[in-house]
Design goal:
618 residues; Dipeptide-binding Protein, domain 3; four-stranded antiparallel beta sheet; 3 domains; 16 helices; Dipeptide-binding Protein, domain 1; 23% helix; globular; four-stranded mixed beta sheet
Length: 618
């Protein structure tokens, strides 16, 4: 899921005591600073009114309520809102750990049989807010919709869920039985396939406000239901009053929704999960910039959970400290600092299908050169105050785990102007530092610029990036300056997060004109919780923003889906690290979260970006 940085690097994209042992051993535990010992504060912001106010990332607001999200709206901010009301079949992450928490899930641990090709899922006793039970039919509803409209779901990868599901049946109201086309890695299937399912209530099986649909029992009937629900999700002003979206199985429901980002939730009093909401209201509060948010959180009287921008921390923390370790906190009088690090990696895509610059992007040497002008260490130590780690491939370097290969640990493309220059000059380009580098040897032979690149072609590109955050501004300015040293011109364009994500999407043809797009935080592994690449880099995948396609990589990805262990994972990540299909940038701590002294229950951050404000109270 797309991630975005906020505050001191609150990356916009996406809390179980009981975790899958295999996941824990391979993925590691994303620990957080303990948050259970806040000092008492009689003047804590929401204490008197029994409310909690939560600061949204700068220039980032929720804008898609239906969990069946297209790629432009496949973000952590939207997921945060959705999960509060509509629970996924399984809950991933809690108490700072990766993996599945069955105590918070709608279903029990899946049972595999028939050589791993039959999966039996038994539902726990949950209720929808309209009094109906969450049943197997609600799971089938999602699967049918996914089969019918997979091209419109950002979580879809060709050949995988739901393509790999031969049958989906409900022998009784609490049981779902799936049969697959072959046996898969059980860990991968749990973490990256079943993770996509959000049961949908029968109340959503509608083709209009008054007409029932039949998507639950008939896949061919899903198109009309999709058209209606999709239109309803685009109608933001109606969210809080909608008969559709008011049917929830989570602990919260909407009280008010404003498209500017002011969103208020109230408890779902009939929630049947383990923890009901404990305050009267939960409010999301928008900000255009991180400095605007800091002016509010610094006052200590309005926001219960906010963040401190990195630039407002005077002293960097030790470089050897973990990304989620807290450093000096200038707001300690009113807040406890609990840094939030997500299990993901930071990158920005380049558009391989752009008819003009796509041929340049398809040249490995160019991507090597561009990666070499990204000064990750410099940005982390200066602008990010050591809240972050480098990104050298798709497997996060924090927390440490057996999945991380030596190739990633050694970083094949460290910051080097000399290396960047050589990559270009060795391949037909006349490098003009602080000027414009152009192709002087067109052609496809060794040492030429490559297919589709004409003589005189200049290395000049448009790079929109997420606005409102000083650290991203600094990082982008650094990259622009470094690129200029080898004659690459990056025309930076700060834009709102939602604008960047809605533009940097898979496309084809003459209108496929975007070149680069940096939404600021890359990807958090959700709903692909195991760090394989099918959703992001497989040919035709729903979240393959730049339309990268490589047959070798497709085979490596497929191997991670059917085989367990580190060998197949490291083969995949080594290809990704050395072939740089996207441009890697520092993996910042998602948020330097400031939690009001006196707010109880906020013990750790979810490594996948979900929030559970039902645990929080005064």
């Amino acid at each position: 899921m797309k991630s975005h940085s906020a505050g001191a690097w609150r990356r916009f994209l996406l809390p179980g005591v009981l975790v899958a042992a295999a996941s824990l051993s391979l993925m590691g535990c994303a620990g957080s600073s303990p948050g259970a010992t806040h000092a008492a504060n009689a003047n804590a912001p929401g204490k008197a009114s029994d409310t909690i106010s939560w600061a949204l990332p700068p220039a980032t607001v929720p804008n898609w309520i239906w969990p069946f999200s297209p790629i432009a709206d496949f973000s952590v901010t939207n997921s945060e809102m959705q999960l509060m009301m509509y629970r996924t079949l399984y809950w991933y992450g809690d108490n700072g750990k990766t993996g599945v928490d069955y105590s918070l899930s709608l279903a029990k641990q899946p049972v595999y049989s028939n050589g791993g090709k039959t999966i039996t899922i038994t539902l726990n006793p949950y209720k929808w807010s309209n009094g109906e039970s969450v049943t197997a039919q609600d799971v089938i509803f999602w699967i049918n919709m996914d089969k019918a409209e997979k091209a419109n779901y950002a979580g879809y990868t060709p050949g995988q869920f739901p393509d790999n599901i031969l049958t989906a049946t409900s022998p009784n109201p609490t049981t779902v039985v799936l049969t697959t086309d072959k046996a898969y890695s059980q860990e991968w299937f749990l973490m990256n396939q079943l993770s996509q399912i959000t049961p949908m209530p029968l109340a959503w099986d509608m083709t209009s406000a008054t007409a029932k649909g039949d998507c639950v029992t008939n896949i061919s009937g899903c198109k009309a239901v999709y058209t209606y629900l999709n239109a309803q999700s685009k109608d933001l002003p109606s969210y809080a009053t909608s008969k559709i979206w008011s049917v929830v199985d989570g602990p919260w429901k909407l009280s008010s929704f404003n498209s500017d980002g002011h969103v208020t939730f109230v408890p779902n009093t009939v929630y049947s999960g383990p923890q009901k909401a404990q305050v009267k209201q939960f409010k999301m509060v928008p900000f255009t910039t991180d400095s605007a948010e800091f002016n509010v959180v610094r006052g200590g009287s309005t926001l219960d959970v906010g963040y401190i921008p990195t630039q407002d921390i005077a002293q960097a923390k030790p470089a050897t400290s973990a990304p989620d370790a807290a450093g000096p906190n200038p707001l300690s009088a009113n807040y406890q600092l609990i840094p939030w690090f997500l299990y993901g990696f930071n990158y920005f895509p380049i558009n391989y299908n752009n008819p003009t610059v796509g041929p340049i992007f398809k040249q490995l040497y160019f991507r090597q050169a561009l990666q070499s002008v990204v000064d990750q260490k410099g940005v982390i130590s200066s602008a990010a105050k050591n809240y972050g780690v480098q990104t050298t491939g798709p497997v996060p370097l924090f927390p440490d785990s057996p999945l991380i290969s030596q190739t990633e640990k050694n970083n094949p493309y460290p910051y080097s102007i000399a290396n960047a220059t050589k990559y270009l000059t060795d391949n037909g380009w006349k490098v003009v530092p602080k000027g414009t580098t152009t192709c002087v040897k067109p052609g496809t032979a060794t040492g030429d610029c490559g297919a589709g690149i004409a003589a005189g072609t200049a290395l000049t590109f448009s790079l929109p990036y997420a606005s409102g955050q000083a650290t991203i501004d600094t990082a982008m300015a650094s990259m622009k300056s470094n690129a200029a040293q080898v004659g690459i011109t990056l025309n930076l364009k700060p834009e709102p997060f939602n604008s960047v994500t809605s533009t940097a999407v898979p496309c084809k043809g003459k209108t496929c004109t975007w070149e680069m797009g940096n939404w600021g935080g890359g990807w958090v592994y959700a709903p692909d919780y195991y760090p394989t690449g099918e959703l992001l880099f497989a040919t035709g995948a729903g979240s393959n923003s730049g339309s990268y396609s490589n047959a070798t990589l497709d085979k490596l990805i497929a191997a991670t889906n059917t085989q367990s262990g580190t060998a197949v994972m490291q083969a995949y990540e080594d290809f990704m690290a050395t072939n740089v299909p996207v441009i890697y940038q520092p993996n910042y701590t998602y948020s330097l979260t400031e939690v009001a002294n006196g707010l109880k229950g906020f013990t750790a951050n979810n490594p996948y970006g979900a929030i559970k404000p039902e645990d929080w109270h005064y």
